[in-house]
């Protein structure tokens, strides 16, 4: 059984999707062992507490720079014997040393179909604002491995979601969460924990 650490910075809706999937037996060979928040008082910690999962605050504001925070986070996750790290609305930057320490063991969910609307500055509602401004007809979500390039790691799963007439960034965000993020994130986590993902450069293969 692999230990999963979920990193959060806010309300934790994607964390809840993972908790619900685990309870439903949909995460094969994995369990959420710890939730790490980058700031105190976020609702994601309440979700962890309600599910009986250890919650830890490692506040970014307590550290002088990215390198110091990344080192502390790396040490914490190693102490917790973490096998997989899931970034679920984690808004804190880490350094390349951190991503190298957990190479192909960090996954992130992004609210767009990468390579569209990704990279620096594209997060949260900014993604959906950009999609609507561009007039796209289809958006969606992507689960990918994390490397030193922002939103540039190998893609694991993607799911498309239609953009509807009259959508606002908020309505589009909600639809993408419900129809894509909350489905493909637990699925990708289960595939990883079951040993069904193989990474070769930028290509991810899903084993039968």
TrEMBL record:
In this chain, the site described as Raises pKa of active site His is at 151
- GO cellular-component terms in the record? cytoplasm
**Which EC number(s) are documented for this chain?**
2.1.2.2
Residues of the active site are: 110 (proton donor)
Highest taxon above the source species: Bacteria
The residue ranges of the Formyl transferase N-terminal domain are 3-189
Q: What class of enzyme is it?
A: transferase
Similarity comment text for this entry: Belongs to the GART family.
Q: Which NCBIfam families match?
A: PurN
Q: What does this protein do?
A: Catalyzes the transfer of a formyl group from 10-formyltetrahydrofolate to 5-phospho-ribosyl-glycinamide (GAR), producing 5-phospho-ribosyl-N-formylglycinamide (FGAR) and tetrahydrofolate.
Report the protein name in the record: Phosphoribosylglycinamide formyltransferase
Q: What is the lineage of its organism?
A: Bacteria, Bacillati, Bacillota, Clostridia, Eubacteriales
Gene from which this protein is expressed: purN
